[in-house]
TrEMBL record:
Domain spans labelled TonB-dependent receptor-like beta-barrel: 383-887
InterPro entries: Beta-barrel_TonB (IPR000531), Beta-barrel_TonB_sf (IPR036942), CarboxyPept-like_regulatory (IPR008969), Plug_dom (IPR012910), Plug_dom_sf (IPR037066), TonB-dep_rcpt-like (IPR039426)
Gene Ontology CC: cell outer membrane
Secretion signal, residue range per the UniProt entry: 1-19
Span of domain TonB-dependent receptor plug: 119-240
Protein name: Iron complex outermembrane receptor protein
Recorded family membership: Belongs to the TonB-dependent receptor family.
Pfam families in UniProt: CarbopepD_reg_2, Plug, TonB_dep_Rec_b-barrel
Source organism of this protein record: Dyadobacter jiangsuensis
Location of the protein in the cell: Cell outer membrane
Membrane topology term: Multi-pass membrane protein
Keywords assigned by UniProt, alphabetized: Cell outer membrane, Membrane, Receptor, Signal, TonB box, Transmembrane, Transmembrane beta strand, Transport
Amino acid sequence: MKKKLLLLLLISASFHALAQSVKGRISDEKNGAPLPGVSILVQGTNTGTVTDADGNFSLNMADGTYNIVISFIGYTPKIVPAVVSAGQSAPLNIALAESSEVLGEIVVTGSRSGGRSRIDSPVPVDIIPVSQITNSVGQVDINQILTYVAPSFQSSRQTISDGTDHIDPAQLRGLGPDQVLVLVNGKRRHQSSLVNVNGTVNRGTVGTDLNAIPATAVEKIEILRDGATAQYGSDAIAGVINIILKSRTGLSGNVSYGENVTSYDKNYIINNNKDASVNVSDGGTAQVGLNYGLKVGQKGFVNITGEYVKRGATNRTGTYTGQLFPAVDGKVVDDEVLAQRGLTRNDFDMRIGNSEVKGGGVVVNADIPLNEQLDVYAFGQYNKKKGNAAGFYRYPNGVPAAVRTNVFAVYPNGFLPEINSDVTDISAAAGIRGKLGEWRFDLSNTFGKNDFDYRITNSVNYTQAVSIANFQREFNAGGNGFSQNTINLDFGRKFDVLHGLNVALGAEQRSEKYTITAGEEASYKNYDVAAGVPAGAQVFSGFFPQNAGSHSRHSVAGYLDLEQDITKSWVLSAALRFENYSDFGNTLNYKVATRYKITDGIALRASASSGFRAPSLQQRYYAKTNTLFVTQNGQQVAQESGTFTNDSKPAEILGIPKLKQETSQSFTVGTTIQISNAFELTVDAYQIDIDDRIVLTNNFNDGGNANLKAQLAAANATTANFFSNAVDTRSRGIEGVLSYNTRFGRNQSLRAVLAGTFIQNKVKKGADGKPIIHASDILVQTKQVNTYFNREDLSRFEIASPRNKQSLTINYKAGKFGAMLRGVRFGEATYWDPTIDPDKPDAWPVNALTGQKETLDQTFGAKVVTDLALSYDVVKGIGLTIGANNVLDVYQDKHTHSGNVSSGRFVYSRRVQQMGFNGRYLFARVSFSF
């Protein structure tokens, strides 16, 4: 009844629209052409509109004096005064000047007051004009686009890492994928159901699949580089990424194709790094995107996007130098068997590179006014993609003796098992917003769901092959699902206090569900325990029925957000948020921020905030047995590792505590300098302290405990790992953006942007200089703390990702011709060997080639990737772009340690990646807009 009454009040209030109006026309300063789709906003309110096809607009409002914010991608924004008297005002006919610069554009992320420019924001916000960028770069997905234009953002495609091959994890400020909150049109986006459980940089985390949103559908992306939990809730520790969908009218689209044309040192181990290179053409990527928007009434729109991407696999494997076939009478017979079968070692190559992915999606974005003070909106997306990746090659010599007869009858040369993914991602949001008296309001519901299913091919369950010659080779291994529903009610009002006080308050209710679907029986079952061979589908065994099921939780939250313009130069904001979770209780967080203009062109800004991240349902309930390859004496050895929940019996035996939330304290201080419209500089320094960081532990064996051994055996596992709140960290960094923008001659413009980030992430340490690890007494007593958290885990937090990144982008346009030159420097990254004690070099392994003691530690030097694109406007509305990413064909450093970790197979590290290792990529794109 209450909900019906509220709806009636809203509808009743909507019919009291006033007749007063502000009208005008927005045009291009250069040629006078009308500009459709320009954003018109009354500063400090949610009242606004967009221009129609003829550049005209109309706003109804009460008598008074207003500032009207006019902004449009590609043009310098303007704020102009408007005085409404006796129901009318003078026409606002405004000409906008073209500009490649976006630093002054109006932002909506990080502030609820509305109408602040990026340079005036009290917190650092990057604006990425995706709709402009996509036509001049070779990258086709959001993760890769952001990696090369936003230094604080980092995403590298992973390889030989199960599901993580198919969904790219991403970082902000070097923190985890689940420590950045993703919004779409200002509404919370759901996470992926995938848990990164392999040895990637982001091991143990759960992120958001940004690539499920077609880049063709995106107008711009705002990246708030500041803690914002008090404003937006859980996960916003490192910052917020707000993806703003297109709302423009008309027809536009693009068609592109590109592929890697490169060379790499495939045989550098087998040929002692001489004459080692091979030429490669692979990774062909075709992309087709189409966007259409139509006007609904004077201010409404419906915008629809469709996109399809087909990305071919890449392979940068090295030549395997180890033993291929079983020995005969103690003698290695590889050369004889290869010659007999007409094979070479190249026939046993692994696939180390990008997975193959193909799929597409549809996005709808709509906003329809009911009257001058009330409108309804909706947006949503459906994305479907299928991927294919491979695991470790099962060489004949590695096939268990008990099954060789039957396995060799099918796979005489061993086999390369494949993981095939089927990922479905959907989201839908709808709401109503407008004015209720003097208050702005926004009532919305947002739903999202991600399903990730696995099909294993070219494989075998060894326990089945013991006695069955015609064994199963393909398996449905089950999958994971995650869904999230969020209800928001937000209110805001501007008060005439000093130079303006904006009050925002609201409530949120969120429900989440995580599901595990069991695989078919043959994907996980041990058909012959006595045989002593690994059970389940090789490369990725299925999910057990006992682990299948659904797990849910819900939370409620309320917030208060104040932003006071004390003077024209000084802004002070504060926010407070309370949340209650059904599975771990309450949390209260705050944020304060300020900006002070010393002069019209120079300002100082600072913020302080607390934050938290609720442990994801995926981390709480993920349970599965995986085949992992771990390093032992310089070689990769298969190990069946079970991931168990924190309330499991193995966790109880080892003293692993239940998960709790991560908490944080964040501080930022910075300056903005604007000299005329041509030059801008922003510099910000930050510190983020995070307590109780969640990690995925390493693999515990039974240690002679019969009870634990039995628990592991029941899961077809020989070791166990868990999610746990293991360490505290401190992150510090400096981020800067320097831009220069000018126009000269008749039709020429030049824009240059130099941006950089410098990151120092540290696990907090004790007086002895060693990490402080939150381990149980049981682990301390049994001397298993190093298994709980080891040197490689430490390196993942501190040094395995680039510790700094800088980019210089130059855009030049002369009439119909345009050029883009970009250089991105990825800083050094380091791998630490978890098997050694750095303080005991006498115990280090001996390099078989040099006879010297060594570790597998390695620092990978900084690399510069250069991109070049040339564009030409063939006719009005149609453009052609050709270019190259990584035009100089730069690779990260090769492995240098003994045995190349895996007998030559991994030329480049899969544990440490700076910009990936695909080499030069050539592309061509045709774009159109009508």
